[in-house]
Please model this.
Amino acid sequence: MLLQQFANGILFTNGKTWKEIRRFSLMTLRNLGMGKSGLESRVQEEAYHLVEELKKTNALPYDPTFILGCASCNMVCSIIFQNRFDYTDQTLIGFLERFNENSKILSSPWIQVYNIFPALIDYLPGSHHKIYENLAYTKNYILEKMKEHQESLDTNNPRDFIDYFLIKKEQENHNQQLEFTCENLVATASDLFGAGTETTSTTLRYALLLLLKHPEVTAKIQEEIDCVIGRHRSPCMQDRSRMPYTNAVLHEVQRYIDLIPVDVPHAVTCDVKFRNYVIPKGTNILISMTSVLHDDKEFPNPEIFDPAHFLDDSGNFKKSDYFIPFSAGKRMCVGESLARMELFLFLTSILQNFTLKPVVDIKDLDTTPITNGFQHIPPPYQLCFIPL
Model:
């Protein structure tokens, strides 16, 4: 696999290194407020900036790709670097351009060929070289920030993910452990950066497209917002439990778009017998997320966008064990709670402040992804954000 060329970080490592880095990352993200009110206030602040930027579109046709990317990228920046960027900052723009380009390349036919025939990667020119260049851009920036943090580090007052890692690195060096290296810091921060930005912003972009296609769904969400939140305060995570329909819509968006149709590679740790097949220890396997998210026994008519898939007969939110957009098991997404927080607060903030108006006839809106590979990417579209 192309991405298995990277030996450090959290996504594509195995064994003791993966276990130590993942455990540290989860603990540090919690220390930085993931799943707590401290981080929620930062997401609310970013939602405010997002709404203010959307107001500047003056209700004219607008492609939301860039601005949604800014919002989700800033949340990762606040965790890794303890700062956010203005939406006109060239550094932020540089990140987003490269993330978007990599996302498209990774879902292209070329990369699928390399994944099937990995030996070709050393002999054929191709777009994978551009991926390496884009990843190097992000890693070089993180390396510069790491050096700045080393000069101003206060071990008694860690500010962000980089500080926590540097403190852990200093502690473990005395124990002669090799997991907490500068290379692993850069790679882990880069993994969090890429995974935490593109997936959330793409999900939000797809959500807005689906809401344009289904105005009756949008109207029900806004009715729920009016009843539970009103117009004069910011949405908060406590609201979600009292908004079953909105919660169902967010779940249905993630199920329907099937953002990552095939999970990242896993390897079996021992010989496994599965459906009369023996999978030898160490074999790399790919898991079809689509087969679960679009299971027709759990979700009747899975090809149809229908929030009722997550509602019971009384209109209450209904959980499903088949809802696994963040993967499952020990390697499930470490940033799941942050992503859920962003999706709820960003979307409800937008719908609290704007009416979504399509620029073409609803019947001409196409929700079919333009690429089907590593990631399902929605087709480009524009809409008008009409202030309420």
Remarks:
- The two ends are 48 Å apart (CA to CA).
- Residues 2-387 form a domain with the Cytochrome p450 fold (CATH 1.10.630.10).
